[in-house]
Fold DUF389 domain-containing protein.
Amino acid sequence: MLHLRVISPAETTDQAMAVLAEDPGITHVTLARGIAVAPSGDLIQADIAREGANDVLEHLTALGICRDGAITLTPVETVLSEASKTAAKESPGDPSDAVVWEELLTQTHEESTLNVTFLAFLTIACLLAAVGVATDSPVTIVGAMVVGPEFGPLAAFAVGLVRRDSRLARRSAIALLVGFPVAMVVTLLATLVWEKLGWITLAGVESVRNVDFIYKVGPFSLVVALLAGAAGMLSLVSEKSAALVGVFISVTTVPAAGFAVIAATLGQWHIAFLSAGQLAVNLAGIVIAATLVLVFRPGAGSERGPIGRFARWLRSRLSRNR
């Protein structure tokens, strides 16, 4: 369940309470009039079934509470209450399938902003990838995959497409279009220094065997990217953050960027272009799969959408057979 906290102006409190009363997925409602200081107003708190959150937030927002008050939503890990079980049961759909759009928009907005931290992580990841290529070390390549922050903007771009949020999509695209070139330029400069020191040689790069998968583009490159993008978006909307680590390790976006830089500095343009192609395939595959996951999941916390309708039909058939 989710915990809803609303600071409502006094003139809209009764309307807000009416919204909560009409939803069967809401319970544990409390009201403290005149207790809020900044902004001033009444404090309303309740627990809400995840699958019904979108409709409630939409109605509360329509009252102007976001403008004159505040709405916060936080996950509740443990609830011991028969009332909460009843609320979850009476809400249509399954909580694991529900996409709380405001929650997802807030999360992806934070992950898609171009800032110093994002550039630092992406640059470090590219440098690690370059070292992994130079030393033919799969372990270092995996480290670069985990450090890379690029999935955040890719997921945000998919959310922007589905929600038709041009600002979010544009912000995400800028983060990627600026972040990767900056990281690759820094990696290029570092690679030139390493080559001057003799740490990287043409013979060494040509003899790599353990990390040559990075630039070998094939049908499974797209398949892996699609699967990773689907798993990554599912982990975001279902709050299964542990699954994101597996997503990071499975895609070769940052390693491909690092390999392209090293190959270019050594004049291996064929490998450089293949690595760039691998990067493009992975980026496109992740966005496509993440978008499809959002499109075909049950919409707005109810059971709209193809998968939601199928799940509702399947449950009705099973209940008839009992």
In short: The radius of gyration is 24 Å. Residues 300-304 have pLDDT under 50 and may be disordered. The longest strand covers residues 26-36. The domain at 2-91 is CATH 3.30.70.120 (Alpha-Beta Plaits).
